[in-house]
Write a structure and sequence with these properties.
Bound molecules: zinc ion
Structural class: alpha/beta
Strand content: 15-25%
Radius of gyration: 30 Å
Number of helices: 9
Distance between the termini: 101 Å
Low-confidence stretches: 125-163
Length: 372
């Protein structure tokens, strides 16, 4: 009896040993495979260019308000990057009037900026912190802060002969005027910033905005009446007829024709080749002969693309402007997310010593290489 029990135990022990002899190497192999796999993943991740910008989170107590921006006590912020981890200590905090700009750049050079509207007031009319690209349809936070915000404007000089010491940004807005133009004019007015509008006849109900732009000291350039490539690039005659139609509107609204122009699609557009080969080469020459100063751009806000966001508009501008002494920035006042976020670009630029100027016939032109 005892012997058989002993031999059973021995058998169990032997079986266990056999199982372990197989299982341990299998587990070891699995662990090694797992380590190699995660190692490869980590290496691949490191090799892949880092395109994810850090995330800034602002703390906001909805009950906290101050009588004036100077009395505001920072409520806190945090910056985290998917690769670099906690970047809170690298955040640049730039107060500008009633807006505080928080800017952080990761090691790969991706910049995120977040803004806080200082909660001035008693909490009844003020708007809370908001991520710059989450403003919704019909947001009127710009209006809400209008009375409270004052900005120094002595850096702005719109004398055509003015040669600034500082770096210059020429903001240009194409394709309007349209439904967001008035809001944009209010923002520009609040900062006393002057820009250039390359106007179209796309939204005739807003044609009077051209007059308002002009009266406010902005530059007006012709862009196109129809902005219909098939029509305007059908031949040179059609192109100039369309420009002439737009000039008429500009003259009605401002009392003057303009000699500033931006080609629909820019002078480097290749789409025109679908309609007429080589037309841009001829039109650019003719434009100069006719006395037009045409402008392309050397910084694009990216807002021409429909899946662009307000945050991208901000990033595209503030990441590229520092490379240039003069930046001609392409924007569209027909894009609500651009109009809603341009204020943050302006606050950032003024705080960093940039000057905003409207284009005029003496401005440096940003010309693309003509492709067609
Ligand atoms: Zn356009």
């Amino acid at each position: 009896m005892r012997r058989s029990q002993q031999s059973r135990r021995r058998r169990i022990r032997r079986r266990t040993r056999r199982v372990l002899r197989i299982a341990i190497p299998v587990i070891l192999v699995l662990v090694v495979v797992f380590l190699i796999f995660t190692g490869i993943k980590a290496v691949v991740r490191l090799l892949k260019p880092d395109k994810t910008p850090p995330v800034i989170e602002l703390t906001r107590n909805p009950d906290y308000f101050v009588p004036s921006a100077e009395e505001y006590q920072e409520e806190g912020y945090k910056a985290v990057d998917d690769r670099d981890g906690d970047l809170t200590d690298s955040v640049r905090r730039i107060p500008s009037g009633n807006v505080i700009c928080y800017e952080v750049t990761d090691r790969a050079g991706n910049t995120t900026i977040e803004y806080r509207e200082v909660p001035v007031g008693d909490g009844k009319a003020a708007s809370n912190t908001q991520s710059s690209d989450t403003q919704s349809e019909g947001d009127d936070s710009g209006k809400a802060s209008e009375e409270a915000v004052t900005y120094t404007t002595d850096r702005i000089n719109i004398d055509p002969g003015y040669v600034p010491d500082e770096k210059v940004i020429y903001l240009t807005f194409d394709d309007g005027p349209g439904e967001y133009t008035e809001r944009l004019l209010e923002i520009l007015d609040r900062y006393n910033v002057h820009v250039t509008f390359f106007v179209t006849g796309g939204f005739p109900a807003y044609a009077d905005m051209i007059g308002k732009e002009y009266e406010a000291g902005h530059s007006i350039g012709v862009h196109s009446y129809t902005h219909d490539f098939a029509q305007i690039y059908a031949d040179k005659k059609a192109f100039w007829a369309d420009i002439e139609k737009m000039e008429k509107v500009v003259e009605e609204q401002t009392g003057h024709r303009t000699n500033l122009m931006r080609f629909a699609g820019g002078s480097s557009n290749t789409l025109s080749a679908m309609y007429t080969q080589g037309i841009m080469k001829e039109l650019t020459k003719e434009a100069e002969k006719k006395g037009y100063h045409y402008f392309d751009w050397n910084v694009s806000s990216g807002d021409g693309s429909n899946d662009c966001t307000g945050q991208e508009v901000i990033n595209n501008i503030i990441n590229n402007v520092p490379d240039n002494d003069y930046s001609v920035v392409l924007c569209h006042d027909t894009k609500e997310f651009t109009v809603n976020n341009i204020e943050y670009v302006i606050a950032w630029a003024l705080e960093n010593g940039y000057t905003f100027l409207p284009l005029n016939e003496t401005s440096t032109t940003a010309h693309h290489a003509v492709q067609n």
